[in-house]
Amino acid sequence: MSVSSPAGGSGGSGGAVPDRRSRARGLLLGGAVGDALGAAVEFWSWAEIVSRLGPLGVTDLVPAYGRAGAVTDDTQMTVFTAEGLIRAHVRYRSRGITTVPGVVLHAYQRWLRTQGETPPDDTAVDGWLSGESWLHHRRAPGTTCLSALRRVRMAGPYRADNDSKGCGGVMRVAPVGLAMAGPEQSYDTAVELAALTHGHADGQQPAGVLAAAVWLLAHGAASVGEAVRAALDLPAARRPEAAATVAAVSAGLGLAGRGLASPAELDALGGGWVGEEALAMAVACAAAEAPVRSALLAAVNHSGDSDSTGSIAGQLLGTAYGEAGLPADWVAAVEGRETLEALADDLAAEFDPDADPGREWEPDDGWRERYPGW
User: Fold this and answer.
1) Whole-angstrom Cα distance, residue 365 to residue 361?
2) How far is CA 358 from CA 237, 350, 354, in A?
3) For the whole model, what pTM was predicted?
4) Integer Cα distance of 342 and 80 in angstroms
5) pLDDT of 237-267, one tens digit each?
6) Closest among 82, 30, 75 to 344, alpha carbons compared
7) How far is 308 from 35, CA to CA, in rounded Å?
8) CA-CA distances (angstroms) from residue 341 to 78, 170, 308, 314, 337?
9) Percentage of residues in the chain having pLDDT higher than 70
10) 3-state class (DSSP) for residue 6
11) Which of 179, 181, 172, 178 is nearest to 206 (CA)?
12) 291 by DSSP, 3-state: which?
């Protein structure tokens, strides 16, 4: 099976199957582009969007936070997820033991510091990512993520003590699908990571579906729709606690099968403020097999959580079609582009399935300084 870029992407893929590096870049850059498209209108109703921007709503990057292409906490937390996954694997390769939720939790604590908050422990600010200045901006971070990370138990068990099912669990976990050995492991790991901040099953299970779908796309699924359907068919997705997620995302797939959804049709799926609705709305756009540019615009033109639905749709589309399948003008304008490209390249390299899992580092290559294993 293979995936080629539909019309409306960057026009540079030539129908070629994206390689691992291109898919990793596509995931991070696509998520950031969708996030940036929705950033300005995140809290606007569709009526407000039309009133301020015209009858077509969002048609291009709308300035937010002082610039066009600005991203929000969705992209910020996604890059710290990617960093945490790399550092967890570095720890495993150097020590033979690791805990992915524990190491990624430390990454989220470093993100918390970028928001001007004080973590509950003395999490080391090392590695390279925390030094990226563009991440040190407060862009309407989710209150659930903030409050959970302020009081989470760093010694484990790594689970939030709330009953939130907000979309902050699903919008940040897509890189898990590029780091695990299979779709089931991707599913379970993403659920664990969402549970660090969101205690309700509906805030956790969508994360598992998204990560499994990303894995399937990265390993040959022919389309976003095929990948999402297969992710829903996993045994984990048939747990009773996944019922709401399965129903919502199935509705999104059904909508995608009828073509690109209208704002009213997307609003009928929900507001996107909770996990299963955000994933369903993103899937309704990303799985419609429309041009990438059109699908990304549809994902933010509604009354709900536009930056999160745009970001998730962008992650799926970017993984499916690779970096070259994304609109090049939007990619060039997105905040933090060079950081996202570098991090994606490192993610692809660290989890290269052809690399020797027991490989060591040369003393002067700086990899362990770049990604300390904690």
Assistant:
1) 7
2) 33, 12, 12
3) 0.95
4) 13
5) 888 999 999 999 999 999 999 999 999 999 9
6) 82
7) 6
8) 13, 22, 20, 15, 6
9) 92
10) coil
11) 172
12) coil
